[in-house]
Design a protein that fits this description.
Keywords: Signal
Distance between the termini: 38 Å
Radius of gyration: 18 Å
Oligomer: single chain
Number of domains: 1
Helix content: 25-40%
Strand content: 5-15%
Order of helices and strands: HEEHEEHHEHEH
Largest sheet: 2 strands, antiparallel
Mean pLDDT: 84
C-alpha cells in the first residue's frame, strides 16, 4: 500500500510539466538550448515590506521570512535559470488523471499543514503563501508575467521524499530555501499557445471556470 502511495505521489509530479498546455506528461526529446532569466532579489528590500517572522510572538513563525526573503512572500520575485539537458515535450493525458494527481497534491498539502502546524494563525499564513504561489503560476500560463512557463526540476524531485516508508511525513530538511526555486527550470514544449488567439481563449477559459465555481457556491 505504501509503495502505491509513493508511486502516486511520484506520478503527480508530472502535472507540473503539463499545465502550460493541454493535459500531458513529460517525455524526453532532443537537446534544448540553455538560457537565463535574471534574478530579481538582488536589490535591497522594499521600504513597504511586511515581516511575518515571529508575528504576534508565535514561536512556529520564527524565521518565516528567511525562506523566500523579505518582500517575496509567495516567491514571485524569484528569477529562473533554464538548465534542461533534454527538451521535455507534453503528451496528452486524460483530464481525470490530471485531476487525480492534483487532488493528491491538494490533500497532501492539507495533511502537511494540519499534522505539523498546531497554531491556526501559522496554518493560515502558510496556506496563504502556498495558495498565492500556485495562483501566481496562472499569470505564467496566461503569459502575463515575465517568467517562462515551467517548473523547477530539482525542487519537484523531492516529492517522493515527502512520506517515509512507514507512511509518516518526512520532517527532515530537504536542503533548499524558497529562493532556490527557479534555479533548475524545465520549460516543456508542445503547447498550443498562439500569440494572436490564445490571450482571448485563455481569458474565456478562466471565465468558464469562474462561472462553474460560482454555480457551485450557490
Amino acid at each position: 500500500m505504501q509503495g502505491k502511495l509513493l508511486n502516486l505521489l511520484a506520478v503527480a509530479i508530472s502535472v507540473l510539466s503539463i499545465l502550460p498546455s493541454s493535459f500531458c506528461s513529460p517525455v524526453a526529446s532532443e537537446r534544448a538550448p540553455l538560457w537565463n532569466l535574471s534574478k530579481r532579489l538582488d536589490g535591497p528590500p522594499s521600504n513597504n515590506f511586511v515581516s511575518l517572522s515571529n508575528w504576534r510572538g508565535i514561536p512556529s513563525l520564527q524565521g518565516f521570512d528567511d525562506f523566500n526573503g523579505i518582500s517575496n512572500f509567495d516567491g514571485s520575485k524569484n528569477g529562473q535559470v533554464v538548465v534542461q539537458e533534454k527538451q521535455v515535450v507534453c503528451k496528452t493525458q486524460r483530464v481525470e488523471i490530471i485531476q487525480q494527481q492534483l487532488v493528491i497534491l491538494r490533500e497532501m498539502a492539507k495533511r502537511i499543514i494540519t499534522e505539523q502546524i498546531c497554531e491556526v494563525e501559522t496554518q493560515t499564513i502558510v496556506l496563504s503563501q502556498f495558495h498565492n504561489g500556485v495562483k501566481d503560476f496562472k499569470k505564467d500560463l496566461a503569459r502575463k508575467s515575465n517568467r517562462a512557463v515551467g517548473y523547477d526540476a530539482n525542487i519537484a524531485s523531492h516529492l517522493i521524499r515527502l512520506v517515509n516508508s512507514d507512511g509518516s511525513l518526512n520532517s527532515g530538511s530537504f536542503g533548499f530555501q524558497g529562493t532556490d526555486v527557479g534555479n533548475a527550470t524545465i520549460v516543456p514544449t508542445g503547447s498550443n499557445w498562439n500569440n494572436a488567439t490564445s490571450p482571448e481563449s485563455v481569458q474565456a477559459a478562466e471565465q468558464a471556470a469562474q462561472a462553474a465555481l460560482n454555480a457551485t457556491k450557490v
